[in-house]
Amino acid sequence: MSETVLDFEAIRKIIPHRFPFLLVDRVTITEPDKRAVGLKCVSGNEPFFQGHFPDRAIMPGVLIVESMAQVACALFLSKPSFKDKLAFFMGMEEIKFRKPVVPGDRLEIKIEMLKVRDRFGKAKGEAYVEGQLVTEATFSFAIVDKENATA
Predict the structure, then answer these.
(1) Of 52, 139, 150, 151, whose CB has the highest number of CB atoms within 10 Å?
(2) Which residues pair with 92 in a beta bridge?
(3) Please, which residues have CB within 8 angstroms of residue 61's CB and are 6 or more apart in sequence?
């Protein structure tokens, strides 16, 4: 089984996120429909560091969870049948923040799909820095048509 690597430009073609909210640099699909690993190189130039926190830069935990969701999005929406679709968060649970993520860190985000049914899914995410678990979460999402995506 071969891996599929999505570079930054390929990710931009699959998911709708853009600066400053595109929070993943590369995704490797290690097992289609099941597992992926994403990378996020955390730079001191990230706009969120201006306010979180000015005297001690720490990546907001919710953005780490968002990074996990974007990796899951890239995994799921890379399927041809989901072209021109959006993925919406439906729920988050079992979130644990174990260690701060700071400028210079390289997040390795591991995603495993736990359940997939039609246009709904549940995934487990784990984020690591230098092999050490920093954040984990389970989240669910729904796939919707772009033209039907209303609040």
Answers:
(1) 139
(2) 139
(3) 95, 97, 135
Query: Which one-letter amino acid corresponds to residue 64?
Result: I
Task: Verify whether residue 17 is a known catalytic residue.
Answer: no
Identify the residue whose tokens are 């230098």: 130
| Residue 50: strand, helix, or coil | helix
CATH number assigned to the domain comprising residue 78: 3.10.129.10
pLDDT digits (tens, 9 = 90+) for 53-112: 989 999 999 999 999 999 999 998 888 888 888 999 999 999 999 999 999 999 999 999
Total Cβ atoms within 10 A of residue 26: 17
Number of domains the chain contains: 1
Per DSSP, what are the bridge partners of residue 29?
A: 4, 36
Amino acid at 70: Q
Marked catalytic residue, from 12, 26, 35, 52: 52
pLDDT digits (tens, 9 = 90+) for 17-63: 999 999 999 999 999 989 999 999 999 999 999 999 989 999 999 99
How far does CA 40 lie from the centroid of its chain? 9
Cα–Cα separations (whole angstroms), residue 34 to 60, 67, 107, 128: 27, 17, 20, 19
What's the pTM value of the predicted model, to 2 decimals? 0.93
User: What is residue 1's predicted lDDT score, i.e. its pLDDT?
Assistant: 64
